[in-house]
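Notes taken during the Thursday session

The instructor put the following on the board and asked us to keep it in front of us for the whole hour. The protein is Flagellar biosynthetic protein FliR. We were told not to look anything up and to reason only from what is written here. First, the residues (280 in total):
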Amino acid sequence: MITVSSADINIWIAGLLWPLTRILGLIAASPLFGNSAVPASVKVSLGVGLAVIVAPAVPAWPATDPLSLAGLLIVMQEMLIGLAMGFSIRIIFAAVELAGEISSLTMGLGFATFFDPTTSGRSSAISQFLSLVATMAFLALNAHLVLLSALVESFYTLPVSSLPIYGGGFKQMADWGGRIFSTGVQLSLPVVAALLITNVALGILTRAAPQLNLFGIGFPITLGVGLLVVAMTLPYLGTPVQNLFLDGIERARLMPRTWSQRQAVAKPAQSPVRPPGLGP
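Then, after some discussion, the predicted structure tokens were revealed:
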């Protein structure tokens, strides 16, 4: 006769709950899986499906009751790890959107704003266009599959543990956030440079022919030049965007390693357990 105790049930719950929490954290923060257009039921179903697949291969976890205070702290920590990994990819999309905002303001399209369901705010037309292009590139490069692979790898580099994570990973995340501004300016530099030359030429033309109406001809010219430069630079955005995605995924992969190095320094003796029948 098979007997199941409450301790076995707690172990089974912990074996699924803790990996599921990290997976749902990444799904909630990542730009593709966490899009507001995706129903919440689909996100939860995807997270549960991935957790069922990943849980049997997850390294041993601490013998902690998932309903205790220590178990709830582990849940919060796992959620934080997943959010940090998804946020590292979200920064890349934020940099592309910033490049679109800068280009739109330089072109004079600051008034052409639309509701962005992703951020529940307003963004310019060029920003949404570049965001869609980045999303298509993200899917074409199979970066979403590589991100899920990095998530599974994180359970080995940073196993589920009751030890608190080190704050050095948060500093790396803050430093990585600076790429939003540097990358956004670099991606929008061709449009800004072309419109700067256009505005200088319009200023010289107005100085040479004062009878011309600068406000009447300036806006169509800057708008046309801006759209033309965007169309010309669009085929060349593949390589830098691909490099940005690779850097973001590498950042998401290295972040758990940074926290795991800190745990390895001050790791106390703990009794890892395995649920009965799940792996060796």
